[in-house]
Amino acid sequence: MEKAGQVALVTGASSGIGRETAIMLAAKGFKVMAAARRMDRLVELAGQVEGITPIDVDFSDPDDLEKFCQHVAGFSEPVSVLINNAGYSLRGALEDVSIEAAKRMFQVNVFALMRVTQACLPGMRKMREGTIVNVSSMAGKFAFPGSGPYAATKHAVEAITDALRIEIRPFGIRVVAIRPGFIATEFNDVGNSMTGDLLARTDPDYKSVYETSGKAVGSMFAGVTVPGPELIANIIVEAVLSDSPKAVYHAGLFSEEFLENRASLDDEGFDEYLSEKTGLKDLKL
Question: pLDDT of 20-31, one tens digit each?
Answer without folding.
Answer: 999 999 999 999
